[in-house]
Every structure is written in C-alpha cells, then in structure tokens.
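Cross-check.
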Amino acid sequence: MRTLAIILVVLSVCADALPSEANNTVTERGIFSGSFADAIWTVVAFLVLLVVLGKLAWKPMLNALKDRELHIKQQLDTAENTRKQAEEMLNGYKQQSLQVIEKATEQAHQQEKALIEKATQEVIAMKRKAQADVDYAQLAASQQLWQQAGDMLLSISGEILGRAVTHEDNLRLIYEAIEKLKEEQAGTQT
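Predicted model, tokenized:
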C-alpha cells in the first residue's frame, strides 16, 4: 500500500513537470532547453525514484545477495570441514592398515621363529637318538667282541697248555686277556 502511494506521487509529479498540450508549440527543444522549474522537478522526480528503488529494489536485492554470499560461504566452510574430516579418516585408516601390517609381520616372524625352534629341537632329538643308537650298537659290538675273544682264548689255552683247563683257570685267563685288550684299546683311542 505504501509503495503504491509513493509510485502515484512520483507519477503525479512527473505529470506536472511535463508541459501541457495546449502550451505546446512546435518549437525545437534541445536537451538543455527548458525552464529551471522543469530541471528542479526532474531532479526531484529522479531523487524520489532513487529513494523508492532503493527501498523497494536495491535493499532487498542487496539483502538477497548478502544472504546468498553467506550461504555460499557456509557451504564452502562445510565442504572444507568435510574435506578435513575425510583426510583425518584417511590418515586414521592408513595408521590402522600400517598397524595391521606390522602385527601380521610380527606374527609371521614369531611363527617363523617357532618353526625354526621346533625344527632345531627335532634335529637335536634325532641326533641324540642316533648317538644313543650308535652307543648301544658300539656297546653290543664290544660285548660280542669280548665274548668271541674269550671263546677264542679258551680254545687257544686248551691247545697251548695241552691240558684241561678248569673253569676258574678259564675265567682268570679271560679276565686277564680282556684287561690287556682294554688297555691296548684305550691306548689307541687317545
């Protein structure tokens, strides 16, 4: 309503400023031809138009532009915050992946060490068993050798002496021969 009243006032002022048709003579008018009153009314009409446009058009238009600028700035800030959050999340995921890789590597090294330790223990156990088998075989062979040596001594002693050797004589001769062989064997091993 107020705007309509201002527009009507401006139009009436402009209509008064225009010369009437009755006074209109066919004379050539230039841009600067006219009276001082016409110039004042033109300036007043221009100022009124300027005020009306300022209140009705420019202020709302500037306010809309400021609102739009503020909205765009908020969107840019939101986008920047979202970008920073995405970068932080990416860095977090990178850290997590590095930790997972480190943990997997560490577990692989532990499993490798455990397998090596187990294989080493198995090899040591196999060596001990083999050494025990060798020692047992050596002992059995040695006893068999001593037994055969004793049998040979008995048969030799009977032939050499030409008489029957008693059981005590045989045992004494066997033990002496065995002791002598052991001493010789110990001497050759060292």
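The mean pLDDT is 80. The chain has three helices and no strands. Passed to J.P. for a second look.
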